[in-house]
Amino acid sequence: MTQPIRWLQDEIADRMLQKLDIVKLDVKDILVVPDFAGKHLGMLAQRFPKARTFSITEAGVSGLQMWRAKALSNWRSLFASNASPLEDFTSSGRFDIPDNSVDLVFSDLLLQDLPDPKHFLQECWRVLREGGLITFSYLGPDTGKELRSLELSGLKHKSLLSPWDMHDMGDALLGERFSDPVMDMEYLTLDYEMPELLLADVSALKLTHTNPLELPQMHVLPQKLTLEVVYGHAWALGKHLAKARDNVAYIDLNQIGRKTRSDSA
Question: Residue 131: how many CA atoms within 13 Å on its side-chain side?
Answer without folding.
Answer: 7
